[in-house]
């Protein structure tokens, strides 16, 4: 099963939108989702604070706030099938 790490923070409308897109895609492309709040880890905060939401798929594909769209997520998820 695919592994997705979703880097997020509270009160982030872009993060909320990205999570909805992932939930919609989950039916066609099953995956395990790990949600990581960047404020719970200093390394994540330093690395992602200006890029969230960030979606990391199977440690190979990473999409940041400028790249995330329904189409981009679907394309990235379909690559591993």
From TrEMBL:
It comes from the Bacteria. InterPro entries: Glutaredoxin-like, Glutaredoxin-like_YDR286C, Thioredoxin-like_sf. This is Glutaredoxin. It comes from Lentibacillus amyloliquefaciens. The lineage of its organism: Bacteria, Bacillati, Bacillota, Bacilli, Bacillales.
């Amino acid at each position: 099963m695919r592994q997705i790490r979703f880097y997020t923070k509270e009160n982030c409308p872009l993060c909320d939108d990205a999570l909805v897109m992932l939930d919609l895609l989950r039916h066609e492309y099953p995956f395990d989702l790990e949600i990581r709040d960047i404020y719970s880890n200093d390394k994540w905060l330093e690395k992602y604070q200006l890029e969230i939401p960030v979606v990391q798929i199977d440690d190979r594909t990473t999409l940041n706030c400028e790249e995330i769209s329904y189409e981009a997520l679907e394309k990235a998820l379909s690559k591993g099938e």
